[in-house]
Every structure is written in C-alpha cells, then in structure tokens.
Amino acid sequence: MGFNGLIITDSLGMGAIEDTFSINEAAVMALNAGADILLFGADKNHPPEDQIKVFNHILSAVQTGQIPLERLNESVKRILKAKIQYGIFDFAQNNTNEIPLKVGIEKHRVIAQMIAQNGITLIRDEKGFLPIESETPVICIWPQIKGKSETGFDAYDYKITLFPISIDPNHSEIDSAINAARAYSCIIVGTYDVRQNPKQIKLVEGLSKLDKNMIVVSMKMPYDIMCFPYIPCYMATYGTRSLSVHALAEIIFGQKRPKGRIPVDLPGLYPIGHGLVDFKID
Residue 123 and residue 126: Cα distance in Å, rounded? Predict the structure, then answer.
C-alpha cells in the first residue's frame, strides 16, 4: 500500500481476537504481518503481567526464527525514525516548577471542554424527552467508576437526586435503584460497558418498566444500546471525565445543542456518522 509509517495494533487481548487465538499467537502473527507496535489494553482476564509473558514469547519466537530477525529490525528502524522525527532523542529535562504554567492551563481546559461538547451524541430521542424542564424532578442513577461518581449535574440548580450505584450492581442495589426511581417523573441512568458488566442490563430493563421519561447515557462506548434497542432516548459521552459529563448535562438541560455523531456503525440500528443535531432549545 506504500505506507512507510508506524503500524500500531489495537489491543490484542480483545474478545474478537481472544475467541480465536491466544495473545501470544496474536502477537507473533501481528508482528509477522507487519505491525510495529503491539498494544495490550485493560481487557477482561488480562492483567498487566500478560505483557511480560508476551514479550518473552516474542523474544523466544525471534530466537527460534519464527519471527525473522529482518522483520523485527524493520519495525525497530521505523520506531527509531519516528522518535528522531519527533525529537524524542533531543529530550531535555524541564524545570518542574514550570509545569503548572504549561500543563492544564486555562487555554487547555477551554479546548478540552470544547472537544467534549462537540462529541456528546444524541443517538435517539423518539418521544422528545429532551431537553428536561428545569422544574422536573430527576433522579440520576450513575455508576461509580473507580469508586467515583462524577455527574457534572451539580452545577445546575435543578431538582436532581444523585443515586450512585456499583458498576456491576447486585440484585439488592438494582431493586433499591428501581424503588427510588418510582418517586420521579424523569430518570437519567448511566451505563458503562454493559457487555462486561451485564447486570447493568437488568438495571435498565427494570427502570424501563416504570414507564417514566428515561434517558440512558453510554459513558464508554455507544455499543451499549445493542443490549437494549427499545430505549427511546439514548446518548453517548465516550468518557467519564467530569468535563464530558458536564457537557452532557448542558445538553440534557437545554443549555447547548448536541453536535456529536457516532464514529462507528451500530449494526441494525444506526450507521456511522449518525447523530441528532436538530435539537430545539429555548
């Protein structure tokens, strides 16, 4: 194809690969196919120690000729070339006292917030639940990611009750959330990778039976909707950081219009590039 830059894999521990190959096999095949940098993410059942095992397996594969030394050298040269191109070998230690003046400054925060606002996607609102009126009592059932429950809704003087819940809630938590939601006319519920945390599906199913105005928000990947395609109002933030959730709140409560479009196909539901951007606000 005439491409001379770096080729970097996605995580080699993802289910699509693991269902057919071991991560050791996948690593050798990827390197022999021309990949230069092999990635291993925080995939289920794959602790960081797996990276060391894969490294040792690749080393053995090179030593036995399963991976030709010439193939390895090609990747090493491309990696070194990229490091030279971006000045990595010219690195000079900065004065650590100057870091707060250069990193996380107001200019950066403004750009980050703009990116978050432009990314929030309204995928579906079949019944016109949005925006939520300021006087509407709302319960926000929000999964706690790494022990935190940032919603971004606290900046609004609305009638919002936060109900934190585990990322993989047990039956008791689900029942408590559903019972709490009965007293509210509007429900916001966040989901986070429901295929890895399937009890969230039970939570959404139970809440949907209350016949309330419910907005489901995917906090990680938009694919969550595949597990409950019947939900009439569905949004995606692509992240759990407070700036993303704050941008979400601005749209839910009619302060901003959604601008995002999904970057992937949702098979049988929506094509890549879909997003409702004709949102009406006062």
Answer: 10
Secondary structure (3-state) at 125: strand
Question: Which tokens is 124 given?
Answer: 């579906």
Q: State the chain's mean pLDDT as an integer.
A: 90
Could you tell me if 50 and 129 lie in one domain? no
Q: What is the pLDDT of residues 158-204, one digit of tens each?
A: 678 889 999 999 999 999 999 999 999 999 999 999 988 999 999 99
126 and 180 in a single domain? The answer is: yes
User: How many Cα neighbours within 13 Å face the side chain of 62?
Assistant: 12
* CA distances from residue 80 to 63, 84, 91 in whole angstroms, order as listed: 22, 6, 14
76 and 116 co-located in one domain: no
In angstroms, rounded to a whole number, what is the distance separating the alpha carbons of residues 207 and 187?
Answer: 8
pTM score, whole prediction? 0.73
pLDDT score of 40 more than 80: yes
Q: Which domain holds residue 37?
A: 8-90
What SS3 class is residue 61? helix
Q: What would the DSSP string read from start to end of 167-218?
A: SS--HHHHHHHHHHHTT-SEEEEEE--TTTSTHHHHHHHHHHTT--EEEEEE
Residue 264 lies in a domain: no
Total domains in the chain come to 2
Task: Determine if residue 49 is left, alpha or beta; phi over 0 gives left, psi from -120 to 50 gives alpha, anything else beta.
Answer: alpha
With CA atoms as reference, report the closest residue to 258 among 118, 125, 156. 118
Say yes or no: 130 and 72 in one domain. no
CATH of the domain at 124: 3.40.50.1700
Does the residue 144 lie in any domain?
A: yes
Residue 203, class by beta-carbon neighbours within 10 Å (0-12 exposed, 13-18 middle, 19+ buried)? Answer: buried
The verdict on residue 39 lying in a domain is yes
